[in-house]
Amino acid sequence: MRTGIATVCLSGTLKEKMQACAIAGFDGIEIFEQDLVTSSLSPEEVRTMAADLGLGLDLYQPFRDFDGVTPDLLKANLRRAEAKFRLMSRLGMDTILVCSNVATATIDDDGLRASQLAELAELAGDHGVKVAYEALAWGKYVNDYEHAHRLVEMVDHPNLGTCLDSFHILSRDWDTAPIENISADKIFFVQVADAPKLSMDVLSWSRHYRVFPGEGQFELAKFMGHVVRAGYSGPVSLEVFNDVFRQSDVERTAVDAMRSLIWLEEQSAKWLAGNAPEGSTANGTASRRRYPMELATLPKVNEPAGFNFAEVKAADTAQLEKLLGQLGFAFEGRHRTKDVQLWTMGQARVIINEQAPTHAGPAIAALGFDVDSPVIASARAQQLKAPVVARKVQADEEVFQGISAPDSTEIFLCQGSPDGTAAWTQEFGEGLEHPSAGAAAVIDHVNLAQPWQHFDEAVLFYTSALALEPQPFAEVPSPSGLVRSQVMQTSDGAVRLVLNLAPVQQSPAQQAHKTYQEHIAFAVDDLVSAARSARHRGLEFLQIPANYYEDLDARFDLEPGFLATLQELNLLYDRDADGEFLHFYTATVGSVFFEMVERRGSYDGYGAPNAPVRHAVQYDSLHRP
Ligand code: MG
Ligand code: MG
């Protein structure tokens, strides 16, 4: 698959954008007109620079408001087009995007539109240019890709084809199957963008909320599957208008963009393998037939089977040790060669890492996941451009395959074992098994705060590298603003990761520290008795206001004795059609706090209705004079 990206996706000058695209490994780029107009580089210099960087200049765009106009306007439009064709020849470019008219069209007549597009195609032919006509989702008369294609057919000129843009097609819910009816030589260009499902006007949605494939909710693998089956083999190019990406680091965004195409390529191949074309034989041979577009695949991984461990870094570990002990964790010992402690409760393992702490207070630094093959999972992540994390190990120690997540959390891919044990724990203390309370305890979920500029990148990272499935996002009210919350999980719920959009850090001092709060939640069988034991050991619970329990009673009509127990122990409660959820939170140390949960029945959530209470109480305790 030939990969491309429109310069409008990125921040910086044209030169910076081109360099970042080359570093990220794109085959080609689309030059967005404004990036050229505002550049100090001459068209010839852009051409030379692209050649030096090994970047194809695949599309010049956009040319707006051409068709369906009065004869006077047509003359002016042709003059304007010819100027662009001359410019393109200086750039060494041969394809221009012409979008359907949104502003100046006054005549709704396909015959007239076709004759005007024919004049444009003829002129383009004189300059060796190909015109890719695209139906904008909000085009005045032409807003449907099949309509654009019908016009291309009517004109029937070698220099006129169509551009398929996934946003314009999927935002309108157009059926993508008829893409296969377009002959491949009439598809001049393909643009891809994903987007969250939002209910708003389509122009604002398009201009501000497009995201890279895998970061939104469009069915892009299916879209691409139809494009591939149509026989198209040209560039697949990202055209993503997004307010955040356009102010983020250019090189980093270009890598995120490239990751999205590598992932989309694999997903498209998967879709093709799983969806035989209509009318083909059922034995699947048709689905394995070769198409002109070659799709690369990636090392295959299954969903992770569970959390192997969570690691907290801290310079001063006293508070952390106290908290874990109060929760019922057993200290298993120190590592043989490193300044690292292991604490366990059942199958829940927490590492306290005292080496090179990155923040003043304790902070979540790493997560281990059980995978079938750490080497294959690591190869996949690296092919998806995840940065590798190196850890020093001695000869007789387990080598962890590590990659760095967008928020710098280190992700370790560990060899899972059927009984949930981990061989590396033998490197700690005497290697003795300490029977501890809460034998059934596991890490239930981990909640990580994401910097606002890396949120979408993180969703794609965990989707593509770790095979976690993003759930629809929620917005949780807190005293410092709405917190966007995105659950990423495996289908069996064994791994649950909650990404929260961190509030913007106001001062430079705050920015230097990880001041937003993150947590690790442990699931136990009997939360009430776990809470009682923890209180007995002196645990300081997050204090839940009495108003909460009054509201709880109003909503759920709880048995009075049970309600009193909840209130006495500062437990939170939720219930839905699947089951019940009990949980409590500890106080925060550094940027970390812990949660203990009990899932009853097949409750699958996180007590979302209780999150605003948690946020408010934590805010209160942080801002207490
Ligand atoms: Mg487009
Ligand atoms: Mg939680």
What report would you give on this structure?
This protein has 18 helices and 25 strands. The strands form 3 sheets. Strands 17, 18, 19, 20, 21, 22, 23, 24 and 25 form a 9-stranded mixed sheet that branches. The chain has an 8-stranded parallel β-barrel with strand order 1-2-3-4-5-6-7-8, surrounded by 6 helices. It is α/β, with parallel strands linked by helices and 625 residues long. β1 (2-6), α1 (14-24) and β2 (28-32) form a beta-alpha-beta unit. The N and C termini lie far apart (59 Å). The chain is elongated. The protein folds into 2 domains: 3-288, TIM Barrel (Alpha-Beta Barrel), CATH 3.20.20; 306-623, 2,3-Dihydroxybiphenyl 1,2-Dioxygenase, domain 1, CATH 3.10.180. It binds magnesium ion (2 copies). The site of one magnesium ion (MG) has 4 residues, from loops.
Number of contiguous helices: 18
Quaternary class = single chain
The largest sheet, given as strand count, sense and whether it forms a barrel, is: 9 strands, mixed
Distinct ligand kinds:
magnesium ion
Q: Compute the average pLDDT.
A: 92
Which architecture of the largest domain per CATH? Roll
Given the helix and strand composition, which structural class is it? Answer: alpha/beta
Radius of gyration: 28 Å
Total domain units: 2
Strand content: 15-25%
- The low-pLDDT segments are none
Number of strands: 25
